[in-house]
Write a structure and sequence with these properties.
This protein is 71% helix and 0% strand.
């Protein structure tokens, strides 16, 4: 009985330890599908799901697991083409720095610079994933935001040795709530801010979260936090 219990417990630990590996594989699969669709779009044509699956070297069923409609896939691929190089370049520019606040701020600013030209596509992508509902949603497969998570993890790379795994993952999750389309739409629709003001608020919130995580872990750098530029007052609705 003891041996059986020990074996089951071991399997449970092994399962938990393999979770990051499965998540990384799902992320690679999704990235491959989007890259394939972007490549086909760059050739000046609207691809079918079957064509995307062939280029990505996955089944049509796999494509539909990640993108239930072709429209959602094509919007995601278009956003990939527009944003990937710009945000990657912004992080590359600070890649040698160990200042996580500066790295995260560079990420926020890069996304903010793209927000005005891509806001409508972002809103459409949000609508498509929200309208999908939760009945067919896998709890371990997020509906969107995988690029955002990859960028945040890369920006936070210097903190991997300063924060334990739980704190690091919590910080990634917290930053995902203040960076991206959802944060922009709240700033625009609820607070009535401009794109520039929304970017300032996101940058301030992101810096504050990084400092809070470091302070909680007892490793905050001796540097005063900066206040955001004061946004104009939003009209009450």
């Amino acid at each position: 009985m003891a041996d059986s219990t020990h074996t089951q417990a071991g399997r449970g630990v092994a399962g938990r330890e393999s979770e990051p590996g499965r998540a990384a594989q799902r992320r690679r699969t999704r990235t491959a599908i989007v890259a394939a669709a972007a490549e086909l779009l760059a050739r000046g044509r609207t691809p079918s799901v079957a064509e995307v699956a062939e280029v990505a070297e996955v089944s049509r069923r796999t494509v539909y697991m990640y993108f239930p409609t072709l429209e959602q896939l094509l919007i995601d691929a278009a956003l990939h083409s527009i944003t990937q190089a710009t945000v990657d370049a912004a992080i590359d520019a600070v890649d040698a720095a160990d200042d996580a606040e500066a790295r995260v701020e560079a990420l926020v600013r890069a996304i903010q610079r793209l927000s005005e030209s891509t806001e409508q596509q972002g809103r459409t992508l949000l609508r498509l994933t929200v309208d999908r509902g939760h009945d067919d949603r896998s709890p371990d497969r997020p509906l969107r935001g995988y690029r955002r998570v990859e960028w945040i993890e890369r920006a936070l790379a210097p903190l991997r040795d300063r924060l334990d795994t739980a704190r690091f993952e919590r910080l990634v999750s917290a930053l995902a709530t203040v960076i991206g389309w959802e944060a922009l739409i709240v700033a625009r629709d609820v607070r009535g801010l401009s794109h520039a003001e929304a970017g300032e608020v996101s940058a301030w919130a992101a810096r504050a979260l990084v400092r809070a995580a470091l302070e909680e872990a007892g490793s905050a750098p001796p540097r005063a936090a900066r206040a955001p530029a004061a946004p104009r007052a939003a009209r009450r609705r």
